[in-house]
Amino acid sequence: LYRLEHLNILEKIRDFFKKNINDIEDNIQKEKPSFEIQRLMKVSLKKTVERCSIKLPDLPKEANNLDKNFKKLRELKLDEIVTKIKNILKTGIEGNRDGLEQLERIQVLFELMCNEPQSQIPDLQINMIAGDRVAYYKAPIHYFLESAVGRGKYCGLLNYFDLLTITGAPRRACEIFGFVWFGTAEDYTSKYQFPFDGRITAYAETYENNITFNDKWGVKSLPRPPFSDETGKYDLPKKSFVEPPNWNWEGSWIVEPIKSTLTSEDLLLTEWVEKVYETTNFEDMDEVEVSWANKYMEERTPRDEIELPEGWVWTTEWEVDKNQPGDGDGWSYSTGPESNTFSSSMKKSHSFKRRLWIRGRKRIGTPILPDVKEIVEKTGGWEYGRTFSSKFKIKEFSSDMVRRRRWVRYLTSFEPGPVEFKMISSKATIIRAPPLIITFPEQLLYQVRVHLYQGRTLNSTDIRGYVTAYAVVCVQNKTQISQTIHQQLSPTWDETLIFDDIMLIGPVSELAITSPRISIELYHKGPQGDEYLGESTLKPIILKGDYILPRMKWYPVMENGKYAGDVLTVAELLPLSEDFKKANMPFLPPKKSNGSYQVPPGIRPIMKVTRVEILSWGVRHLKSWNSRPISQPIVEIECGGFTTVLPNIIDLKKNPNFPSTSTYFDLALPEGYTYKPPINIRLLDKRENGYIPLVGKYVLTEFSKYDPDFLAKTLATEETEELFGDDDNSLYTPSGPSVTSDGSTVIVIEDEKEARGCLACISKLVKKAMKFAEIIDETDDWEFLSMYWWSRYYAMEGNQLLYKTFKHHELPLIKVYEKEIELFYNNFADSIQWFRFQKVPKQMENDEDEDLEKDPIVGVYKGSFRIYEIPVDEEPRPLIYGDVPTSHPLKVLIRVYALRGLILACTSPIKDKYCDAYISLQIGPKIIKDVSNVIYKTRNPIFCKVYNMETTLPNYPELVISVFDYHATEDKMDNLIGLTKIDIEDRFLSIKRPICSLTERYMIGGPHKWRDFMLPTQILDEFCVASGISLPRYSSDGSSCFIGGEQYSVQEFEKYPENFADKKVWGENKERLALYVLLEMGLITDHVEKRRLFNPVLPGVPQGRLLMWCDIFPHMETPPEPMNIDYPDPVEMELRVIVYDCIKVKTVEEDPPKDVNADVLHDLLSKSQFAGEKEAQVSEIHVRAINGNASFNWRFKHQFKYSYLERKVIIPNEIEDVKLDPCVTISIADADPSISPQPYGIVQLNLANCPRGAKIFTKCRMEMIPGYKIPPELAKEKEEEVTKPISVTYLSVLKKKKTLGWWPVYEKKKGFMYQTGYVNMEMEVMTKGQAEKRPAGFGRNDPNTNPTIDEPVRIPTTFPEIDSKVKMIKFIWKSPNKPKLILGVIANLLGGMLAGFLLNAYSVVGNLISTVTDKVQNMTSSVT
Question: How far apart are CA 312 and CA 301, in angstroms?
Answer without folding.
Answer: 18
